[in-house]
Write a structure and sequence with these properties.
Residues 34-146 form the DUF218 domain. This is DUF218 domain-containing protein. Pfam families: DUF218. The protein is of the alpha/beta class and 222 residues long. 46% of the residues lie in helices and 10% in strands. The chain is built from 8 helices and 5 strands, in the order αβαβαβαβαβααα. The longest helix has 21 residues, at 171-191. The relative contact order is 0.17.
Length: 222
Amino acid sequence: MTNDQQGIAESQWCQAKTIWDYHQMHHELRPVDAAIGLGSHDLGVATHSAELYRSGLFPTLVFTGGNSPTTAKVFPRGEAVHFREHAIDLGVPAEAILLEPNAANTGQNITFSRKVLAAAGIHPTTVLLVSKPYMERRSFATARKLWPDVEILCASEPLEFDDYLKSIGDEKLVLDMLVGDLQRVIEYPKLGFAIEQEVPEDVHAAYESLIHDGFTSRLIAS
């Protein structure tokens, strides 16, 4: 890693890598009753969901998500719709996919997907959440709060930080998102949106430093 990638300094890259590592849950995957692919700007979520389906980890896959300012131009018909089409192109049978096209945040992703599964007669005891790599911890904390009687596992594309930055093509955006997701991990339990997660000192220090350096476009208003 050099310090000339879109103005991202070496020290900032190291701080971002610390937060990146923290966001990932490192769960050991095993068969579950259903999976939920969380909509976002990252089509890799759909790609990895398809890979996990083909490996036999679950019989039913929900794609959830409408649009956000980050995704409206990329996925004009909605995140879940585009993710579903991509997964079908990758060999997932259409009948294995349930669509939830309305969720506008992670809480709605979980709540609305649960309703879609129930409407299909599926009441899982184990659920796999497939997300962006840096969204694993927040999605886990949200699901544990909203769906406490279900065992939650998390997965994301197994990419190194450098490779993920290259796949997205916008280092500033990714660092902003890393910081924003960590803020939500810290703040959302106070609002009743998620269970509390311990944040190690080095992770918190990296977070404060990147905020000081201006990686703030994804922060929620205080």
